[in-house]
Specification:
By secondary structure, the chain is of the alpha/beta class. The chain contains 17 helices and 14 strands. 44% of the residues lie in helices and 19% in strands.
């Protein structure tokens, strides 16, 4: 079993008019930050906010009438489920989705909103998939695999097909790897159209399933942990998707969590677009490993934008802390009237904003006639923070960060 450019082009014909032909745009700011010529494919502009509906719909459109009447089932951490549920509802096909219990609420809610029966079982994708397989047999449903399926891979490959139609001279495609469906489809399209293009896989360091299989070890043995990129947190890459992608992938990069967070924040602050952790993986690769991309024309795929709003708020706040734009400082001084007003005036006159103040007189490392203040301030940047700390020190209130 194999995948060809003809399969992907046939999928593109089927999908025409049913999914968005998302824009590929040059990002001047991301190019300046990374040193590459960055082009961004905004798949988070699909109706379900992810590329996954391409493969799901390509599969549904090829089902026989009897199968359509019985219905389909899938296991998914979220985006495949939404794409499948949405297009199945459009086509009048009953759909059941098994999702891990840890799936972000926004993805569960949106999947149900598309009319799917949602079953929450298992602690991860692999456990949920086992439950889905059992239900599939019990109910005589058709299983639509999120990645280890040729029709799904052909649908996902239309992303790269569109990118190279818009910019035929792209030189590098960093592509997220979970189960391997996206990279199998995109690598097939890209390498057939341009054998010299480099295809670089991107995996969370916590879930190196493709890397482990390349090294001849079990991905499941080395995978685990709470990653922000839950959409590609798969313990075992698909056998079929791996067999198709492996000869076409030039390199695979493993990404630590802070780079996913920084990439999500950059998309929000620079491109003004909401991206989930897995969706930001290709940009995270440029931040973590700039050398393979520097000076190259690089195509990034924003694979999805379904991030929980609380998590997004946390990521953006943590980025402020990393950039020292949000800093907590501790000041110990005499417990006398007006001390806090004096310190606040210094901070205010320096142009910073006080977010929070905690006043402690009972800490044993503080003199009995003293007081301890923990102050959280918002500043312009790291240098501004240092200027404020210097000013406090000169006034007799030397702070320390906490």
């Amino acid at each position: 079993m194999t995948l060809s450019l003809d399969d992907i082009r046939a999928a593109a014909d089927r999908l025409k008019g049913h999914v968005e032909r998302t824009p590929l745009r040059h990002s001047r700011t991301l190019s300046e930050i990374t040193g590459a010529e960055v082009w961004v494919k905004f798949e988070n502009l699909q109706f379900t906010a992810a590329y996954k509906e391409r493969g799901a719909l390509n599969t549904l459109l090829q089902l026989g009438e009897n199968v359509r009447k019985r219905g389909v089932i899938a296991a998914s951490a979220g985006n495949h489920s939404q794409g499948l549920a949405y297009h199945a509802a459009r086509l009048g096909i009953p759909v059941t989705i098994v999702m891990p219990r840890s799936t972000p609420f926004v993805k569960v809610q949106q999947t149900r909103a598309h009319g799917a029966e949602v079953v929450l079982e298992g602690d991860n994708y692999d456990e949920a998939s086992g439950v889905a397989q059992r239900l599939c047999n019990d109910r005589d449903l058709a299983f639509v695999h999120p990645f280890n399926d040729l029709q799904v891979m052909a649908g996902q490959g239309t992303v790269a097909l569109e990118m190279l139609e818009d910019q035929p001279d792209l030189e590098v495609l960093p592509i997220p790897i979970g189960g391997g469906g996206l990279i199998a489809g995109c690598a097939t399209a890209a390498k057939t159209l341009n054998p010299n293009i480099r295809v670089i896989g991107v995996e969370p360091a916590m879930y190196p399933s493709f890397t482990a299989k390349m090294r001849g070890v079990s991905g499941a043995a080395n995978a685990g942990g709470a990653t922000i990129a839950e959409g590609i947190a798969v313990k075992q890459v698909g056998d079929l998707s791996y067999a198709i992608a492996r000869p076409l992938v030039d390199e695979v990069l493993l990404i630590e969590e802070p780079y996913f967070e920084r990439a999500v924040a950059l998309y929000c602050n620079v491109e003004k677009t909401v991206v989930e952790g897995a969706g930001a993986a290709s940009l995270a690769a440029l931040l973590a490993y700039p050398n393979p991309f520097r000076g190259k024309k690089v195509g990034l795929i924003v694979t999805g934008g379904n991030i929980d709003t609380r998590l997004l708020a946390s990521v953006l706040t943590r980025e402020l802390i990393r950039d020292q734009r949000l800093v907590s400082i501790r000041i110990i001084g005499d417990d006398r009237p007006g001390l806090l007003a004096t310190v606040s005036a210094i901070i205010g006159n320096m142009g910073a904003n006080i977010i929070e103040v905690a006043h402690n007189r009972l800490a044993l490392d503080v003199p009995a006639k003293g007081a301890e203040f923990d102050i959280t301030i918002e500043t312009r940047d790291a240098q501004h923070t240092q200027d404020i700390m210097d000013a406090l020190g000169k006034a007799g209130y030397p702070p320390r960060t906490i």
